[in-house]
Write a structure and sequence with these properties.
The structure holds two protein chains of two kinds. By secondary structure, chain A is of the alpha/beta class. Chain A contains 26 helices and nine strands. Chain A has helices at residues 14-22, 64-75, 90-102, 114-119, 126-133, 145-160, 186-191, 194-213, 218-243, 248-285, 287-294, 296-301, 309-317, 319-324, 331-340, 349-360, 365-390, 410-444, 460-468, 480-491, 495-503, 514-526, 531-541, 543-574, 578-595, 617-623, and strands at residues 2-8, 39-42, 48-52, 80-86, 106-112, 123-124, 137-139, 177-178, 399-401. In chain A, the strands form two sheets. Chain A has a six-stranded mixed β-sheet, sandwiched between helices. A two-stranded antiparallel ribbon of chain A has the order 6-8. Chain B is of the alpha+beta class. Chain B has a five-stranded antiparallel β-sheet with strand order 4-3-2-1-5. The chains are: A alpha/beta, B alpha+beta. At the A-B interface, helix 8, helix 11, helix 12 and strand 9 of A face helix 1 and strand 4 of B. Strand 9 of chain A pairs antiparallel with strand 4 (57-62) of chain B.
Chain lengths: 624, 77
């Protein structure tokens, strides 16, 4: 058995090679540090185990994912190390190769992105390089099947014929290597130009949301058809079960419980896939890291940094997937991002917003919808900046390499998309189905665990709703049915919709007046994310944080619901237009935010080990 | 002169890295070390983050780090 390991600098294309050699489907990305844990797989038809390690720049480990790599190298000295170096980065990458060779490890130099390198008129004398290093050298393109075969043959020969050597002195590449000429591409000029980048960013975001969520567009169309299919299936199933005289409780459990959970999951899949296709495209092509760079300032202002942009954008699709995607970030940044993600309005919240807006604010639909989204985003920003000040203050700074803009391989994009869809169905889908089944149990059993069926007034959920309805009193809402809807929304946001359908035969119109509706909408925007998000937070950050997040978001939503109601009443009393007040609140929030600049010493880099603290601004101000 | 004060598109030479060992190592492995020629190519929207060019590679670096990299060779030296 041959044990082969891929090592190399971040973004060198290790995972792409791994996938093409083993036929697996790990996540790749034109973004540094996509691989955070080592993964292993058998090469099909060969006697080779291939491992993929997180990228390292040098063998001195720094970040947690680099430690995984270093430990692995030190513990597995008889493996064959495939030192993966991108062709246009040979001067730097060869240092790691050299140190592997000098450690007397079996080494093979794999040069990637060779096509791209040649296209840019780069030149490399491979035979001379082989002579200089004394180890086999191979040039490949990650996605090419023929290259993969060639590499496998070479792995076998390199593993069996190996003589340890030492390389003295520096490797001189000048004569045999000429790097490609890097032209600043036309697109780079746009993405890195200040005003243009702002415009392109908003166009990109708008386009993405439009195609996914707008009526008559692809996302909504697919969603409707998917839901239609599952509902048909449900009906057929229900009739079949009733024909064979199945127990009523079992029928209800299977159709209203499990299958409606499944249909809930299915209804999100089309929109999520479209949204994620966009995101993966931006990530793979390197556009996302340009956005992360250009708008890093804004992320720093709210206590995050540009690396969080991917997770935050994922959050607009599904908060749970967003929380899982924070795994690649440093610990403090991960905490801040994952916890503040709770306020990002996800796909499931949108139908609830639309229901409220269509019933109560049909006149200014767009304005209220934007307000609902802005509320979520502003609260996310405030949360992360508070977390940054109080809990996770550290000077984690962004320091990474900007990847080159690259065209995206459609096959690879589809593969990655499939991976995400799978992850959503397996990780998130099962928990949503479980949670909705649990909701069914609460809805159809009384406290004595007798089946209540249609008679929902006796169910556990109903009693809970009735017991908690006083929480909504300060919003002017006395109807217990809405508090039942709120509780079902804790399980899954879209359940608010189905509960309202079930309990209000005539719809919501007439139940609330405008100010009550507005405050209820604000409450819905902010309150606890669904249980599957909390489960994800528990998995990533621990049980305590998940509980605190659940309770605190609920409390925040209540408080701001009350405030909105009183403001609305106040407006009505003064006969002001509520829009004016909303704008005033927004402006004060923004002002509060910008004036709250960091002044304490922790935030500058005083914590250096060398005695150069004189350079630090805040030390100066202290002494003077 | 600190790297954070260097004007855009000006070749400067790194003289000193006044940084913690781990950040310093990271910079070195990214290719920024003493006596290396670098260029500040772009800044982010509000200027808080720099895009530094070292040879063929571009590195995203926040100002807090750039403030502690001492360079010479700019116009003001």
């Amino acid at each position: 058995m041959i044990n082969a390991v891929l090592v190399g600098s971040p973004n060198a294309g290790k995972t792409t090679l791994f996938n093409s050699l083993t036929g697996k489907n790990l996540k790749t990305g034109n973004w540094h540090g996509v691989t955070v844990d080592k993964s292993q797989a058998l090469v099909p038809g060969e006697n080779i185990i291939l491992s993929d390690l997180p990228g390292i720049y040098s063998e001195v480990a720094l970040s947690p994912e680099e430690k995984v790599s270093e430990e692995y190298i030190n513990n597995n000295k008889d493996s064959l190390f495939l030192s993966v170096v991108p062709a246009f980065d040979l001067e730097r990458g060869i240092k790691l190769t050299k140190s592997l060779i000098n450690k007397s490890l079996k080494t093979l130099l794999v040069i990637t992105f060779f096509d791209e390198f040649k296209k840019g008129k780069g030149f490399l004398d491979v035979d001379k390089l082989k002579e200089m290093l004394g180890v086999p050298v191979v040039c490949v393109n990650g996605n090419d099947k023929k290259d993969a075969k060639r590499l496998l043959e070479l792995i076998k020969t390199a593993f069996s014929n190996f003589t340890p050597i030492k390389i003295e002195g520096d490797i001189k590449l000048e004569k045999i290597y000429k790097n490609r000429k890097l032209k600043e591409s036309f697109l780079d000029k746009i993405f890195l130009n200040k005003p243009l980048s702002l415009i392109t960013f908003f166009v990109i975001i708008f386009l993405m949301l439009f195609v996914t969520f707008s009526e008559h567009c692809l996302g909504v169309f697919l969603q409707k058809n998917a839901v239609f299919l599952v509902d048909k299936l449900k009906d057929v199933f229900c009739i079949a079960l009733l024909k064979i005289n199945c127990n009523k409780v079992v029928v209800s459990f299977l159709t209203d419980g499990v299958l409606s959970g499944v249909s809930g999951v299915v209804s999100f899949i089309p929109q999520l896939i479209i949204l994620y296709a966009f995101l993966i495209f931006f990530e793979e092509s390197g556009i996302l890291s340009r956005i992360a760079f250009m708008f890093d300032d804004f992320f720093v202002k709210i206590g995050l940094n540009g690396r969080a942009v991917f997770s935050l954008l994922m959050g607009f699709g599904c908060t749970t997937v967003g929380v899982f995607s924070t795994r690649a970030l440093e610990i403090n940044l991960k905490n801040k991002t994952a916890l503040s993600l709770a306020f990002i309005p996800c796909t499931a919240r949108l139908p609830v917003y639309l229901m409220m807006i269509n019933t109560f604010f049909a006149k200014n639909r767009i304005f209220i919808l934007v307000l609902a989204y802005l509320t979520g985003i502003i609260f996310m920003a405030v949360t992360s900046s508070i977390l940054n000040k109080r809990l996770y203050n550290n000077s984690d700074t962004m320091l990474l390499e900007m990847p080159v803009l690259r065209g995206v391989n459609v096959k690879k994009l589809l593969k990655t998309l499939l991976y995400y869809a799978k992850q959503f169905i397996i990780k998130v889908g099962t928990s949503i189905t479980l949670v909705i089944t649990l909701l069914w149990v609460l809805k159809s059993f009384s406290f004595t665990f007798s089946y209540v069926g249609e008679n929902i007034e006796k169910s556990i959920l109903f009693s809970l709703g009735k017991g908690l309805r006083f929480l909504l009193y300060p919003m002017g809402i006395t109807d217990w049915r809405l508090s039942v809807a709120v509780i079902s929304g804790l399980f899954a946001k879209e359940a608010v919709l189905s509960t309202v359908d079930l309990l209000f035969s005539l719809g919501l119109s007439g139940v609330l007046n405008a100010s009550q509706a507005l405050s209820f909408l604000i409450f819905l925007c902010l309150y606890t994310p669904c249980f599957s998000t909390l489960i994800a937070v528990k998995k990533e950050l621990g049980f305590k944080k998940a509980v605190i997040l659940g309770i605190s978001t609920f409390a925040v939503a209540l408080v701001f619901g009350y405030i909105t109601y009183f403001c609305a009443l106040f407006c009505a009393f003064l006969q002001l237009k509520p829009a004016i007040l909303i704008i005033v609140i927004l402006i004060t929030l923004i002002l509060l935010f910008t004036f709250n600049k960091k002044t304490n010493c922790k935030n500058c880099c005083c914590n250096t080990e060398d005695n150069n603290e004189r350079n630090c601004k805040c030390k100066k101000s202290k002494t003077s | 002169m600190k790297l954070s004060q260097v004007k855009l598109n000006q070749k400067v030479v790194v003289r000193k890295l006044n940084l913690k060992a781990d950040v310093k190592n990271r910079l070195i492995s990214l290719g920024i070390c003493e006596n290396k020629e670098i260029i500040v190519e772009k800044t982010s929207f509000l200027g808080g983050t720099l895009l530094v060019k070292v040879g063929d590679i571009r590195i995203i670096m926040q100002k807090s780090i750039a403030e502690r990299i001492i360079t010479t060779g700019g116009e003001n030296d």
